[in-house]
């Protein structure tokens, strides 16, 4: 098992957001996380990454047999966890080029920024004045430099115009299926947990399994296409009821 | 106004800012130090101190070099016909300097200017000839050699009409010097259409007191960029240079980068008087306190129509216990001016650090990257040497611990 979350309770901003999450992701699998706004999806990703605004009050996160519940963020990153944030902070004064260069190690990713249409942004301060689509492409460029083994993607398609969606989709695909950046990335099995509202990203990546998170709890799981169809047709309310009937 | 009697009386006049210093505690440094004929013959440890303040000990890539040890010149060399470079006592024998001496800095300003006036201190004289554009920078270096000594210098830089020049000046103490006082009066004149970039790097011992007194008078459409950098511990620096934009269309930019370590007190900033139409000014200050005291001042005075100016004062506080004080001031005597200021003091945002850690950087690396961005960001055209020094100082400061 790549990721195992046991009875995870998380507080943010002084209130409980996640109230007992159990979730497993097998190595090499791509899982989708559905759920209405405010249900705790981003908090779950942030808790797996270890971001400071999330306080774990109960439960454990096991990654590759290691308990990472209280591990510092950078150590999690070095274990291979990488995250694409939906609303990353501005970093005034820190050039995109400096970060990509520092993260990429021996791989030359900086010179490939044009593939992400980010070559003109290399000397810009990270995220400062970036549009929605530019933020996504910048995140993907950074992740490509980082080359994680497990991807946490928070709404990779949101705020991206129709022209760029193909590029974003392709780059997510490349990250997942190891279209080798350089030697270090060959034959890599990459897994992912992806938040999506529209399911648009599913046009570019295959997904093995999906979860529905409502009010801080996993209420349902199943095949991504089936769940998406249910949500589209009947909304999350029906989804809860359906689950309750089954239970 | 500046008669000898007033100036002598000013010997007891405390400065407006900064802790007072008893000048009697220091012996006036020698005016006749040993000469250095060839830069190559400078001892290794002194060379190292020079490099740390941006001065090339071999003079490569420089249009000229002038060195002072204590109060006297020890080396002058120049490879450019476009400039005149010599000690000011020598220049005063050749030229009538009355229109430049004590015109940009009043001699009776305080005890430090008064002392320099009474001592008739030596210093560097740099003049760029009319219309000449000096390709390489001129470098000057002021070194304090002995303990408990006072270094008094009086410098004059003249950029003639339509000429341009870059000056790099480094001030430092020899390694064994602990306690000392540096008093430097600098008067700068940029005539119509002239342009000057002046970069000053300080690297003192941690028990040095520093009292520079600088003024710049600017003509029509002249340009002045002043960079001031202090990265290492010092006892106390207090400086407040003034630029007088007296010619229409003149523009000035002051960039300050200061690190205030535990035990240091840095009180710096500048004042810009926009006295002619369509003049402009920008003051950018970036400071970091590691438990020291840091006072960042800035004052813009708009006295003519169409004046535009901005003041930006940002301070990062990395440790508790010190003091960070930002004092931005805007003053206008007329309606048609546009002056703004922005000041911010605080710690490093946690979400920024975490964002970089998410990419695999350690906390220390993340803080270092943010601090470097903070210091260098917003300041365009910072020389590469200086960036390297800043990086080295940040590495040495052991951040994130």
Strand content of chain A: 25-35%
The overall number of domains of chain B is 2
What is the C-level CATH assignment of chain A?
Alpha Beta
The run of helices and strands of chain A is EEEHEEHEEHEHEHEEEH
**Major sheet summary line of chain B:** 11 strands, mixed
Low-confidence sequence ranges of chain A: none
Instruction: Profile the largest sheet of chain A.
Output: 6 strands, mixed
Hey, roughly how much beta strand do the residues of chain B contain? 35-45%
CATH architecture of chain A: 3-Layer(aba) Sandwich
How far apart the termini of chain A lie comes to: 26 Å
Q: Termini of chain B, distance in Å?
A: 54 Å
Question: What's the number of helices of chain B?
Answer: 7
Would you report the number of β strands of chain B?
21
- Widest beta sheet: strand line-up of chain A: 6-9-10-3-11-12
Given helix and strand content, the structural type of chain A is alpha/beta
Counted beta strands of chain A: 12
Helix content of chain A: 25-40%
Total count of helical runs of at least 4 residues of chain A: 6
Brief description of this entry?
The complex is a heterodimer of chains A (247) and B (401). Chain A has 247 residues and is an alpha/beta fold. Chain A is built from six helices and twelve strands.
Describe, in plain words, how this protein is organized in 3D.
The complex is a heterodimer of chains A (247) and B (401). The model of chain A has no long low-confidence stretch (mean pLDDT 91). A six-stranded mixed beta sheet of chain A has the order 6-9-10-3-11-12, with helices on both faces. In chain A, strands 2-1-4-5 form a four-stranded antiparallel beta sheet. Chain A is α/β, with parallel strands linked by helices and 247 residues long. In chain A, helix 3 (96-104) packs parallel to helix 4 (132-146) and helix 4 (132-146) runs parallel beside helix 5. Chain A has helices at residues 41-49, 73-79, 96-104, 132-146, 162-176, 224-246; strands at residues 3-12, 15-25, 30-34, 54-63, 66-67, 81-84, 91-95, 125-126, 150-154, 191-195, 209-214, 217-222. Chain A has one domain: P-loop containing nucleotide triphosphate hydrolases (Rossmann fold, 3-Layer(aba) Sandwich), CATH 3.40.50.300. In chain A, a hairpin with a 2-residue loop joins strand 1 (3-12) and strand 2 (15-25). Chain B has 401 residues and is α/β, with parallel strands linked by helices. Chain B has two domains: 4-348, no CATH class; 349-401. Helices cover 17% and strands 43% of the residues of chain B. In chain B, helix 5 packs across helix 6. In chain B, 54% of the residues are buried. Chains A and B meet through helix 2, strand 7, helix 3 and helix 4 of A and helix 5 and helix 6 of B.
């Amino acid at each position: 098992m790549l990721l195992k979350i046991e009875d995870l309770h998380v507080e943010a901003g002084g209130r409980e957001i996640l109230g007992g999450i159990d979730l497993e992701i097998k190595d090499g699998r791509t899982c989708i996380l559905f759920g209405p706004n405010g249900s705790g999806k981003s908090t779950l990703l942030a808790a797996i990454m270890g971001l400071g605004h999330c306080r774990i009050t109960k439960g454990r996160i096991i990654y590759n047999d290691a308990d990472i519940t209280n591990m510092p963020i950078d150590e999690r990153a070095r274990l291979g966890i990488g995250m694409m944030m939906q609303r990353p902070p501005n970093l005034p004064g820190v050039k995109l080029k400096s970060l990509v260069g520092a993260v990429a190690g021996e791989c030359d990713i900086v010179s490939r920024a044009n593939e992400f249409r980010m070559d003109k942004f290399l000397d810009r301060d990270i995220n400062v004045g970036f549009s929605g689509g530019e933020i996504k492409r910048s995140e993907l460029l950074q992740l490509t430099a980082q080359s994680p083994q497990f991807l946490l993607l928070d709404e990779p398609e949101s705020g991206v115009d129709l022209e760029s969606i193909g590029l974003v989709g392709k780059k997510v695909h490349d990250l997942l299926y190891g279209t080798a950046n350089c030697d270090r990335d060959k034959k890599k099995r990459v897994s992912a947990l992806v938040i999506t509202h529209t399911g648009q990203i599913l046009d570019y990546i295959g997904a093995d399994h999906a979860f529905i998170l409502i009010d801080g709890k996993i209420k349902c799981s199943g095949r991504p296409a089936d769940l998406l169809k249910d949500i589209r047709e009947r909304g999350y309310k029906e989804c809860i009821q359906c689950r309750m009937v089954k239970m | 106004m500046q008669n000898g009697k007033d100036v002598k009386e000013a010997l007891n006049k405390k400065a407006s800012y900064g802790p007072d210093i008893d000048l009697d505690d220091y012996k006036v440094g020698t005016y006749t130090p040993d000469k250095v004929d060839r830069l190559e013959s400078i001892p290794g440890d002194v060379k190292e101190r020079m490099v740390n303040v941006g001065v090339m000990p071999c003079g490569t890539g420089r249009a000229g070099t002038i060195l002072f040890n204590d109060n006297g010149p020890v080396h002058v060399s120049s490879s450019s016909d476009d400039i005149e470079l010599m000690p000011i006592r020598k220049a005063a024998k050749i030229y009538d300097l009355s229109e430049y001496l004590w015109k940009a800095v009043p001699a009776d300003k305080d005890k430090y200017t008064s002392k320099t006036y009474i001592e008739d201190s030596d210093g560097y004289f740099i003049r760029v000839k009319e219309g000449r554009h000096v390709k390489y920078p001129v470098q000057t270096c002021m070194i304090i050699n002995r303990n408990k000594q006072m270094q008094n210098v009086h410098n004059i830089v003249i950029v003639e009409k339509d000429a341009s020049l870059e000056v790099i000046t480094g001030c430092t103490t020899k390694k064994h010097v602990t306690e000392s006082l540096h008093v430097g009066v600098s008067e700068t004149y940029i005539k119509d259409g002239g342009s000057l970039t002046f970069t000053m790097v300080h690297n003192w011992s941690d028990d040095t007191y520093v009292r520079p007194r600088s003024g710049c008078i600017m003509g029509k459409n002249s340009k002045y960029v002043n960079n001031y950098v202090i990265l290492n511990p010092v006892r106390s620096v207090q400086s407040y240079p003034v630029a007088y934009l007296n010619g229409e269309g003149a523009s000035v930019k002051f960039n300050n980068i200061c690190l205030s370590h535990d035990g240091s007190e840095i009180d710096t900033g500048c004042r810009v008087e926009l006295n002619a139409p369509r003049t402009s000014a920008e003051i950018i200050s970036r400071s970091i306190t590691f438990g020291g005291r840091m006072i960042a001042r800035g004052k813009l005075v708009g006295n003519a129509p169409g004046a535009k100016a901005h003041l930006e004062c940002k301070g990062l506080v990395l440790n508790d216990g010190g003091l960070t004080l930002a004092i931005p001031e805007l003053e206008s005597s007329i309606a048609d001016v546009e002056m703004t200021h922005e000041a911010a003091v605080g710690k490093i945002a946690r979400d920024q650090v975490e964002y970089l850690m998410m990419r695999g950087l350690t906390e220390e690396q993340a803080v270092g990257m943010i601090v470097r961005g903070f210091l260098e960001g917003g300041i365009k055209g910072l020389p590469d040497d200086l960036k390297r020094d800043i990086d080295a100082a940040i590495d040495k400061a052991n951040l994130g611990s």
